[in-house]
Design brief:
The protein is elongated, with a radius of gyration of 34 Å. The chain has helices at about 5-25, 40-55, 55-70, 75-90, 95-105, 115-125, 135-150, 155-185, 190-205, 210-225, 225-240, 245-255. The chain has about 270 residues and is mostly helical.
Length: about 270
């Protein structure tokens, strides 16, 4: 075979390969793998706010996420992250909101919206607080987050609202302790019940459950035959809540055993 024929065959093979590649390429949809063209940042942000205002929180979150994806270095992107978290919060998707807020707090600790980010994260747990008979993890996480706001941002409106919510959470947690304590009393597990009621008295002193907790302690100590301890707790109850029905019950319980406290119910 001459060198001319060999060169011609190599040229023909190359041409066929190129033609095949071109044919394969032509079989594909040129738009199949292409990303949607970027939209102006203000247009995306407006879509997000419009969806938010119309109550389509899922779509709002999607549009705010697109602001971050398409324009990550714009001044809109940082605030869009907060808005994305807020949309998830309104959509009751608290896990997604917390995830977004965690990223924001880590990446933008000096941002002007940082106090709100902490506050919204605490609210996500606050909204998940269940009744007193269920697991109280969300209540404790919310309490931790709200206390963090007071420490970090004491002069903000978020701190003021956090203070109010902390009082409500503490009352809720005290109620959870009381619920378990009452159950133990019904099961005659008085030592376990005492532990729950003492937690309320010692840890949740400003809540509405303290008078009942003291009376329940009197009940438990009487059931165990520890009348001195029962009288001691009744005295604390009578001193702080002399006119309460709980003190009347504790007083009557001890009076029946001849060890009534000196303070009578209603005495000042």
């Amino acid at each position: 075979m001459s060198s001319t024929q060999s060169s011609f065959r190599r040229f023909t093979l190359a041409a066929l390969l190129l033609a095949g590649l071109a044919a394969c390429s032509g079989d594909k949809d040129p738009d199949k793998d292409a990303l949607a063209p970027d939209e102006p940042v203000d247009a995306l942000y407006t879509k997000g706010t419009d969806a938010l205002n119309s109550g389509d929180y899922k779509e709002a979150g999607k549009q705010f996420a697109e602001v971050e994806r398409q324009h990550p270095y714009s001044q809109w992107a940082t605030h869009a992250q907060i808005m994305e978290a807020y949309a998830s919060y309104l959509n009751l998707d608290y896990d997604e909101a917390i995830k977004t807020l965690d990223q924001f707090i880590e990446l933008h600790p000096g941002n002007t919206d940082i106090a709100y980010a902490y506050y919204l994260r605490a609210l996500c747990n606050y909204e998940r607080i269940s009744d007193v008979r269920r697991d109280q993890t969300a209540a404790r996480e919310s309490l931790k987050g709200l206390q963090d706001i007071i420490t970090r941002f004491p002069d903000t409106s978020y701190a003021k609202d956090a203070t109010l919510k902390i009082a409500l959470i503490n009352d809720h947690l005290a109620g959870a302790e009381m619920e378990v304590g009452r159950y133990y009393v019904k099961q005659h597990l008085y030592i376990a019940a005492i532990g729950r009621f003492k937690t309320v008295v010692d840890k949740y002193q400003t809540t509405s459950h303290v008078p009942e907790a003291l009376e329940r302690l009197v009940e438990c100590y009487v059931a165990l035959g520890l009348l001195d301890e029962a009288k001691k707790n009744a005295s604390v109850l009578g001193y702080n809540f002399p006119g309460s029905d709980w003190y009347q019950d504790a007083y009557n319980l001890l009076a029946d055993r001849g060890v009534a406290p000196a303070r009578k119910p209603g005495d000042k």
